[in-house]
Amino acid sequence: MLLTEKPLRRWIIEPVPDESAVRRLSEALGLPTLVAGLLARNGRDDPEAARAFLEPRLSALHDPARLPGCVAAARRILTAVAEKQTIVVYGDYDVDGVTASAILWHMLTALGAVVENYIPHRLDEGYGLNSEAIEQLASRNPKPLVITVDCGITALAQAALARERGLELIITDHHAFPDRGLPEASILVHPRLAGMDGDSYPFGQLCGAGVALKLAWQIAREHCGSERVSNALRDLLMDSLSLAALGSVADVVPLEDENRLLVRFGLAQIKRTRFGGLNALIEASNLARESIDSYHVGFVLGPRLNACGRMGHARDALKLLTDATASEARQLAEMLNQVNQERRGVERGIFKDAEARVIEAGFDSPDRRAIVLAGEGWHGGVIGIVASRLVDRFNRPVVMLNVENGLAQGSARSVLGVSILDAISEASHLLMSFGGHDMAAGLKVEARHIDELRRIVIEHINRRLSERDLVPTMKIDAQCRLDELDLQAVRHLSRLEPFGRGNDRPRFLIRDCLVNRAGERMGRDGRHLSIHLRQGGTYQRAIGWNLGDWAAQLPAGARLDVVCEARVNRWNDRESVDLEIKDFRPAGVEEVAADA
Fold first, then answer.
1. Do the Cβ atoms of 129 and 158 come closer than 8 Å?
2. DSSP alpha helices (H): ranges in 4-94?
3. Measured CA angle at 434 (ends 161, 320), to 5 deg
4. Which residue stretches of 312-382 are H helix?
5. For 112, which DSSP code?
6. Choosing a second label site near 292 at 20 to 30 A (CA), which of 159, 301, 304, 322?
7. What is the pLDDT of residues 295-312, one digit of tens each?
8. 414 vs 399, 400, 424, 473, CA distance in Å?
9. What is the per-residue DSSP string for 358-376?
10. What is the C-alpha to C-alpha distance for residues 566 and 491, in angstroms, rounded to an integer?
């Protein structure tokens, strides 16, 4: 394949900020112009606002008492603790649900509660509260107090069943509300509910673990009878920040407002945590010597915690993060490694099959701007990941369904700006169950309705996406010269972390770079690219993950426009700049698109 035949993404470059504002910001905060420009472009051209972003304080977290239902829930829970009533924390099987469960378990255990965890089996029970579990818990004598985390807000029938059976239910969740009303639970804790005074919580985008941390914080305050909690409970809350960071990154919530604080301080705490299971997982993942950031959480730790919920039962991940002994923690961490390897193999096989089906059936045509795919024998615990990969591959929303015994159950993923939950909701009359949010959802439908579901979803998405929207785009934060990405500037870039949804790692366009040394394949299977670039008197090696096939098309002397990200590489107490190529094209082939 010739370099001139390389498929072109639509590059979208952010507008250049006001030069005088950038200069003032740079001088006031001692920042390289490149970094000051990024802050100004994102609306932080006021020096004090920029300083608050670069130097965040944990004290900026919102008061948990403002979280709707939080005070009432904390007081009811403490009554249960005092009366030795069994408390069941009912979680979800993903990283957010597991970490949220662990946060509450640690706080309640520290207060001497009689506490149990319940996590449904992904394939046997499905997401959230289920009637069988409600019946089983309600049959106990005496009945426990049940607290949901990361689920329950859509469980209207199950909440009604719990009330009928005399089972007291506190629901804590962060997912979208159902159209047909709210569940009749004893107490609802949710960041987008109106408070008792009618006011809303200042930030509605917490994940399940973030909500659980706020509840644990309020429980500690109520227990101590003061806004200041005891040193022991403060230390526990600080350790719990690491779990909230894991849940927030894994659930891909926007890293804005207090989510950014939870992740920033949680990542700083993660290497100091006293949670033995988390330490064992870090060790088993070969991260003990690493400075753990959101990448390690999203692509190393998170997938391991998720793997047992996808391939087996999430209770193993929860045990690792709660009451596992040192020996059990080491064994569980190694088991998660092995299960994650198994998950990756299964995922690759399903993706290959699904990709071929999409192309063969023409589901990737411009007049079908969503993909609804069904197959037999697809592992129900993995198809959500495959759906995400298909979104990346075909740049459109995807619904993947596993068909078994006349029933189809699966996951949906979307692109930014298009709600897959809205699309699925339009077919609600066909569905046995569904739920989720704009970017991800789950659903169950009788197999005989799949064709009609496909028609409705595609028509809905076609009204919201144009053919132009199907062309892959890449947002570029700034144009710069190669010499501007020096070690000092890249060190300052790290102050913008943590990176993730809503605060993406900056991408830079460097025009007209000379290939100083021909591209080479790297890695065990040659899948990756190593290339040496020069611009003026500046030389820099760069790598391109999964770009090894282009190495032969990048001879010395070729001129490229390159989009890259920059990181500080630390090795043996030495620091250097690492450039990661995200895209490239022959210099001057096409101007950067100016429209968004």
1. yes
2. 19-29, 33-41, 47-54, 70-82
3. 80
4. 315-320, 326-361
5. T
6. 322
7. 999 999 999 999 988 888
8. 9, 12, 11, 15
9. HHHHTTTSTT--SEEEEEE
10. 10
User: In the structure encoding, which two tokens stand for residue 491, read together?
Assistant: 């060190």
Residue of 398, 370, 364, 400 whose CA lies nearest to 382: 400
Helix (H, G, I), strand (E, B) or coil at 436: strand
CA dihedral 225, 231, 236, 239 (to 10 degrees): 130
- What is the token pair recorded at 585? 């094209």
**Residue with token string 């439908």:** 445
Query: What domains can be seen in the chain, in order of their start residue?
Result: 3-17+473-586 (2.40.50.460), 61-271 (3.90.1640.30), 362-470 (3.10.310.30)
Per the CB < 8 A criterion, the answer to whether 389 and 368 are in contact is: no
Contacts of residue 393, defined as CB under 8 A and 6 or more positions apart, other chains included, come to 355
Residue 578 neighbours by CB under 8 Å, 6+ apart:
543, 566, 567, 568, 569
Place of tokens 């006349």: 406
pLDDT by residue (tens digit) across 230-280?
Answer: 999 999 999 999 999 999 999 989 999 999 999 999 999 998 999 999 999
Nearest to 10 by CA among 412, 559, 467, 595: 595
Number of helical (H) and strand (E) elements in the chain, helices listed first: 19, 18
Bond prior to 498 in cis (omega within 30° of 0) = yes
- DSSP class of residue 35 equals H
d(CA 569, CA 234): 34
Q: With the CA atoms of 426, 431, 437 and 438 taken in that order, what torsion angle do they form, in degrees rounded to the nearest 10?
A: -40
Angle made by CA atoms 426, 439, 194, in degrees to the nearest 5: 80
Task: Say if residues 309 and 341 touch (Cβ distance below 8 Å).
Answer: no
Q: What is the pLDDT of residues 388-423, one digit of tens each?
A: 999 999 999 999 999 999 999 999 999 988 999 999
**Do 3 and 550 touch, CB atoms closer than 8 A?**
yes
Q: pTM of the entire structure?
A: 0.90
CA distance 475 to 16: 13
